[in-house]
Specification:
Keywords: DNA-binding, Hydrolase, Transcription, Transcription regulation
Domain Peptidase S24/S26A/S26B/S26C: 95-216
Number of helices: 6
EC number: 3.4.-.-
Helix content: 10-25%
Number of domains: 2
Protein name: Putative phage repressor protein probable autocatalytic cleavage (S24/S26 family peptidase)
Shape: globular
CATH class of the largest domain: Mainly Beta
CATH superfamily of the largest domain: Umud Fragment, subunit A
Distance between the termini: 38 Å
CATH topology of the largest domain: Umud Fragment, subunit A
Order of helices and strands: HHHHEHEHEEEEEEE
Number of strands: 9
CATH architecture of the largest domain: Ribbon
Radius of gyration: 18 Å
Strand content: 25-35%
Strand order of the largest sheet: 2-1-3-4-9-5-6-7-8
InterPro entries: LexA-like, LexA/Signal_pep-like_sf, Peptidase_S24_S26A/B/C
Length: 220
């Protein structure tokens, strides 16, 4: 069945087959590099955005894939012509990265979704792992005690709507990555409460923030 999720999933699978991120696939096809980013798949009003037939035609031409091969990536379709191991992890396994590494460049696209190389993989229950784009961050150190301790794994859902009181991961444009509680967010600023009472609360101009993602699950 064709749906918003399955069409975008087929594009992601095509990118993975050619060892590209969605941004890399768009760039190879001569499109805006952000065309296929997960942050672009919903409009500001929450409406679904679909890839155009022109953009699909361009990526097929750029990769040499046929329409049959593209459609074979849809759920329920045969994948016999696809090399084993060329698709993203199946439901139950998600990308994993340490907090210390998350601040470095190359691990996320401009929407805060996992991208690039260097990710590990961790198995997790089906419910959080089946959400589109989720990934795991491993807590390192004691800056988040008593709520999260060294070695705990946080499941993060980029692109999800965040509300006051949500636990979130925030990355600044300076490369700082932190887990906080969202106290208040306006178009101009964001106020964050620290999980550890020994660490100060933080306030940033939104221009200083690269992305905010919601923590939806934690292993403790």
């Amino acid at each position: 069945m064709l749906s918003h999720d399955t069409i975008w999933g087929a594009i992601d699978a095509l990118a993975a087959r050619h060892k590209l991120t969605p941004s890399g696939l768009a760039r190879r096809a001569g499109l805006d590099p952000t065309s296929f980013n997960k942050s672009k798949r919903l409009g500001p009003d929450g409406r679904l955005r679909w890839p155009s037939t022109e953009s699909i035609a361009k990526v097929l031409e750029a990769t040499g894939a046929t329409i049959d091969q593209f459609l074979s990536s849809l759920p329920g379709q045969a994948r016999s012509d696809v090399p084993t191991g060329s698709f993203p992890p199946q439901a139950g396994s998600i990308p994993l990265l340490g907090f210390a590494q998350a601040g470095a460049g190359g691990f996320f696209d401009d929407g805060g979704f996992p991208a690039g190389q260097g990710w590990d993989v961790v198995d997790f229950p089906a419910s959080p792992s089946r959400k589109s784009g989720v990934y795991a961050l491993e807590v390192q150190g004691d800056s988040m005690v008593p709520l999260y301790r060294d070695g705990d794994v946080l499941i993060v859902e980029p692109g999800a709507q965040v509300r006051r009181g949500d636990r979130v991961v925030v990355k600044t444009r300076d490369g700082e990555v932190m887990a906080k509680v969202l106290l208040r967010q306006t178009p101009r600023s964001i106020e964050l409460t620290s999980l550890n009472p020994d660490h100060p609360n933080r306030t940033f101009d939104m221009a200083e923030i690269e992305w905010v993602a919601r923590i939806i699950w934690a292993s403790q």
